[in-house]
Design a protein that fits this description.
Keywords: Nucleus, Repeat, Transport. The protein is mainly alpha-helical. It contains 44 helices and no strands.
Amino acid sequence: MEPIDIVRLEEAVVVFYRSTSQEQAHLHEWLTKVQLSAQAWQFSWQLMQLGKSQEAQFFGAITLHSKLMKFWHEVPAENRDELKQKILETIIQFAGGPKLVLNRLCIALSAYIVHMLNDWPTAIEDVINTFQNQQIPNVTKEMQLWIMLEVLQAIPEEMQAIYTSVKRSTLRGEVAKRAPLVMETTETYLQMQLDREWDADAYGNMTKAVKCASTWVKNIGFSIENCQNITALLLKMVNKCYWPCVQDPDGDGCMSADENDLAEVCLKTLLYIIIQPDCHLYPITASILIKMFLDSLCDITKMEWKPDNNNEDIVSSIYTLFVSAVERHSTLLLTGITTSDPELSSLCSRLVNEILQCTDKPGIYPVEESCSSMALGFWYLLQDEVFAIAYEAERFKCWEYIRPLYAHLTRILVRKAEQPDENSIDKWTSDDLETFRCYRQDISDTFMYCYEVLRNDILDILSTVLDETIAQLQTNPTLWTKLEACIYAFQSVAEHFDGDETKQIPKLMRVLNEIPYEKMNEKLLGTALETVGSYCQWLKDNPIYIPSAIQLLVRGLSSPMSAQATLGLKELCRDCQLQMKPYAEFLLNECQAVLTSGQMKNSDCVRLMFSIGKLMSLLTSDKIPSYLDIIVSPCFEELTAICQAETKTPQARIRTIFRLNMISTLFSSLNTDLDDDDQIEDLQNVQPVLIVMQKTMPIFRRIAELWVEELDVLETACSALKHAIVNLKSSFKPMLQDLCYFIVAIFQTRCCAPTLEISKTAIVIFYKDEGCKSLMQRLLVEFVSHSFKLFESTPENGFSNIAETIEMFYACLLQIVKKIPQSLDDKAIAYDRLIFYALKAMTLPENGPIRTSIQFLSHFVMQSRNYPQMTVAVLTAGEEILKTAVVCVACVTPRQQVEKFADIFLSVNKKYPAELAIWLRNIMLQSPNFPTNLVDEAEKSRFITQIIREKVNKRLLQQHITEFAIKARGLSDKFQ
């Protein structure tokens, strides 16, 4: 690099830090190169001279740190002592600020210390002695302490980040030897501060001291056997931060920002202490520390157990500590449940009770409280651990212990699931509502864990809550939130109950129909509708309750909760289809009325068509046409009108997609060939979808012509036809010729993923039918040839632009070669192009084409020995296939994807083992730098041997491929 002009550099730095992001992007690349240059060792000091701009000084400091971190090997051994002195002198120079520069210099000294641990073994002791004993003149005591703590805190982080030839484990061991000294230093300082009045400077240094201890515990570790003193100190500090402000009669009871920060970092440090990787090896010490937590902190959680409390942050941190401690020491908890030791038993009960209180925090999450969500994971863990106990007697004892807990928890969860009412909703933001929605889902999952413990008893508990809620509503009809939450709880556990439950669910069904929804918030009706849908399996075994369920769902169709109503009706028609026969015509009339009204959203109309299809399937053949005419004709009439007018406006496109989605959904569910032993005798084997298709296929062709440039329209049209094919199967045969015309018409204009997929669906279903085989073979040839036209017209560097189509092409061919390989035995199919573009797909950066092309080629190779022409194709292209695979593994394909290439090597090895050995040696050994210059001849020979040897063990072959990829890419050091 050319010599760097310090004036120009300084100007560039100032512009960089004071300019917009667009201007910064211009300078960033040059400044990065400058930092990497060897000259950076000199100019970093020049930029930090007094009188320079703060931006220049900061850039000088971060450059020095970057060089120490990444380019230590550039520092000659004889210059290292001088470098240390310069760093120390510059730290003293900036002791008066700016702190931004001073901070980076302290971190630079930390990086220097980590590199020099062998040559300067007393580095940490020397730093502590120098700054703790105030050996620096003209620098305040507080600032010397700040510098010391900043340096000490950065050492563990620098140990993990610096570039060094020393093994990371060795380096970590050397740093760990200094942990007792650092912890002792911070403990001594904090102990001195406890008995003093705290000012702003004291808070800053105490917070820094605790962060220092926290960083060492988190990144290096410090056995909990030695942590009782620091634990006691930190707990005292938390209490000293909290109680004076709460008990001050003249204050507002709210902790200051300094107090909050110090308390939070103390609690986080305690958390790191109690969750260290090896702390489970010391259960006695862990129980002592947890008891210290409870003794010291429970009064705070008790004081703040209220909604909208002033000190929510500290309570959240305390509960996080409790929950983390019990999750890390779950074995200790289970021991406490089964033990005869009263102290341990009492300790575990106290801890569980605190977590129960956390779950039960007053107020609505997240607006009035922010703690309760963190406890929900514990309730999964507890029941999971209990049921995993190997010994039955011990497991039963634990289960007996937790049953009343989960019974209490169930009632708590109903309260916590309550939504905000009309009076409080105004203070909720959209983010709050989304957070609450996720929280309610977590509560729903927790109800499931309660079921695992309580089984059917959970319904008795919920039924009691339901009775209490209904009684409260008699006196205060506006209290709908508790009723809604109770119904939501019933919904959450619905999947566990079959038709045998005949006590509480019938009561729930009765209550759902008796609620005066018109007098209450519409959300209550929405939850009731969802709940009816969730009990469809139960309704199937108890059809006497279906009429009341239908009554409620019909009520919901014309309400603002139509989405939930259409969802519930869909589930009812799917799970209880045959039981719905007596109500089919009534429901179809109601569906038609609500569709005609135009009051439902498009998505709800589409969903409703599923139920319409299921209900129509129950009618006798003479009644279906009239309903098709009433309900389906408007869809085709509108589509016809759009096509005739050739209207290509955005609104027309939206209406086309909407109507096609309605038809597609109907085709997926309308099938009079009901496959059920209880099939009603008068159900004729009439396929109304075929009648519709015969009348409307020309409309599909016109849609394809009009909207051929709009992929989402084509996708929806193809989806409708695919549902018709899959639904009708052999009954679709009369329409196959028209379908092929439709597909080829699109192919002639454009080749796209939806058309490829529908082609594959038809070919796979009908190829084996002798009457359709010839047509399907011609369709397959069109499928391949039109795809080739697209590939041939694509620029060499533009294949990523059609990655989705390439992915679908080879995904479809994969299904074809797996299910009907004989269809590919056709001279009209150019195997060389098929393989060529598969190899092209393998080299793309997108995962989809890589995956499907590899799978296709692997199956093509596996099938090829059964077909002479395919055998010739593989023998001709085999060496190129392997060469491309090796190059992809070595340097082209994203590293996370290289394992997939094992399929190609395995398939070739199974079907062409002799050729594989020859091809690999030709590829790997004839070119000196193939596939990269980072693998030598011995490594290539070893890789060839590994590939040839592994004929079955895919996992081991993947391991070999990954190791080769790492070597070929020069990543061995990173993954050592």
